[in-house]
């Protein structure tokens, strides 16, 4: 099968590497505006050829849009205008806004709204890896609006990537993504800023940084070009979760202020219930 | 050398396993009040024998106190009362309070205040591991108040554990620990509570949880028996950092409320500077 990958970064590049390795994609066309990334995508054999977007889509059986969510919104209508029997996926971290833009498009059925729930704090073709998606979940939204053959192709692709498929409407996806992904990035950015502020005074502080700190702060390395449009598109949900998170932190603060360590124990014991979910 | 390990959990147990493997400790006495943990520590050959605290300290050349920081405070004076030429370390996550309690003790010189900066979200002898400390930092406080031979022994032990030694006064340690360790636990507990609150309504949410969420929330599994006394002893510093962290989160909130994504980009780009520190 011929596959076009629009955006040869962490997600698109990883999908390309994996689909080629599993002999699903025999030709991969890349679309990449960044010249350095385009060169690296060719050097790493992530793609066979770099083409303009319209040429890549026309030649491919399957087009995967793996650019920041604001860029995906700008290109989705002309891409859908140009397809006939081909299939188009996006892989973005927000779903409502994009699904809404295309809802009345005559080729809506050729499109599959997907969100493979894997990533790292790194970006670009050099961050791409063959096996990142394995055993993770992919969300497919609005499956009823997708043609049967296009949905089957999505199931096949994500099966090859060894992902577990979950179906959800776009609004539910965006709420859940705010809780299990977007807020983690905000807290990590804010934690990095908290500590970097202090570090101006005390450079010795980071000699002590260990695994626990690294774990909570690693997402703070994430690329603003990817995350700002996500936050912007999912504003309402992220703001709700952020408000809830601030109020949870204030409960801890109040325990300190009142020396109420019994209630702090209750808060910690409740947090420990995450053990049942994250093993 | 004969070593007594008071508290055969994650830290004490890991030190015992490593010091035995490196042939530094040929006999290890364990002190453990929890019967299940005592049995597991024997079964895993973390310790050779379980003894009452006074017997273990009397028989050992080196005693390592690896119990929660509140329990360490309760036992430190009788232990120091009983030592002659032996050496005693603690390994707790706070240093000022303990150092203050013993500051005028005639055997103060036999004591080394240490904090090996490694741990996981798990506890107990089954969580102990041979090589956890490697390449991490250990902080030694108030080295000037420690006898020369006792300090040399600490350097030897942490050298065997392949840790990088940093010297600091106890107050500076506690401030830095609040920034690079204690606050990470608070944010993680609060994040878990934020998401668990939502999960009451929507159980599907966790099907989507991926690496990023797991990374920021894993510390929320940590044991309150260990962490509450740390927070309590380091109250002032943790409260300062928590206030700063809440105000950093409020900056993000304000950006959402005002749709000010330019300033949100500045906040994220600033957070990205953590790359220079955490690789």
Q: How would you name the oligomeric state of the polypeptide chains in this document?
A: homodimer
CATH superfamily of the largest domain in chain A: NAD(P)-binding Rossmann-like Domain
CATH domain topology of the largest domain in chain A: Rossmann fold
Which structural class fits the helix and strand makeup of chain A? Answer: alpha/beta
Q: In what range is the share of β-strand residues of chain A?
A: 5-15%
CATH class of the largest domain in chain A: Alpha Beta
What's the total count of β strands of chain A?
8
Terminal-residue CA separation of chain A: 38 Å
Structure description:
Two copies of one chain form a homodimer. Chain A is 51% helix and 13% strand. With 279 residues, chain A is α/β, with parallel strands linked by helices. The first copy, chain A, has two domains: 2-168, Rossmann fold (3-Layer(aba) Sandwich), CATH 3.40.50.720; 173-276, 6-phosphogluconate dehydrogenase C-terminal like domain (6-phosphogluconate dehydrogenase C-terminal fold), CATH 1.10.3660. In chain A, strands 3-2-1-4-5-6-7-8 form an eight-stranded mixed beta sheet, with helices on both faces. In chain A, helix 1 links the parallel strand 1 and strand 2 (27-31). In chain A, helix 7 packs across helix 10 and helix 10 runs antiparallel to helix 11 (261-271). The first copy, chain A, is globular and about 65 Å long. The relative contact order of chain A is 0.11. The model of chain A has no long low-confidence stretch (mean pLDDT 95). Chains A and B meet through strand 8, helix 7, helix 8, helix 9 and helix 10 of A and strand 8, helix 7, helix 8, helix 9 and helix 10 of B.
């Amino acid at each position: 099968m011929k596959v076009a990958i629009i955006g040869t970064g962490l997600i698109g590049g990883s999908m390309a590497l994996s689909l080629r390795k599993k002999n699903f994609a025999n030709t991969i066309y890349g679309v990449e505006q960044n010249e350095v990334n385009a060169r690296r995508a060719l050097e790493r054999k992530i793609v066979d050829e770099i083409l303009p977007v319209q040429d890549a889509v026309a030649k491919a059986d399957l087009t995967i849009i793996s650019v920041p969510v604001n860029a995906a919104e700008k290109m989705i209508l002309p891409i859908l205008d140009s397809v006939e029997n081909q299939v188009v996926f996006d892989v973005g971290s927000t779903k409502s806004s994009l699904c809404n833009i295309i809802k009345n498009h005559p080729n809506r059925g050729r499109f599959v709204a997907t969100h493979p729930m894997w990533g790292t704090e790194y970006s670009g073709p050099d961050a791409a890896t063959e096996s990142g998606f394995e055993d993770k979940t992919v969300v497919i939204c609005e499956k009823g609006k997708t043609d049967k053959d296009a949905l089957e192709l999505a199931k096949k692709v994500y099966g090859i990537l060894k992902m577990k498929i979950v179906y959800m409407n776009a609004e539910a996806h965006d709420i859940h993504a705010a809780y299990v992904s977007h807020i983690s990035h905000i807290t990590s950015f804010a934690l990095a800023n908290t500590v970097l502020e202090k570090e101006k005074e005390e450079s010795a502080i980071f000699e002590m940084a260990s695994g626990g700190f690294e774990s909570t702060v690693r997402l703070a390395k994430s690329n603003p070009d990817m995350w700002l449009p996500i936050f912007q598109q999912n504003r309402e949900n992220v703001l709700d979760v952020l408000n809830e998170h601030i109020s949870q932190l204030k409960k801890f603060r109040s325990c300190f202020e009142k020396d109420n360590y019994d209630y702090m124990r209750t808060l910690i014991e409740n947090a420990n219930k995450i053990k049942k979910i994250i093993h």
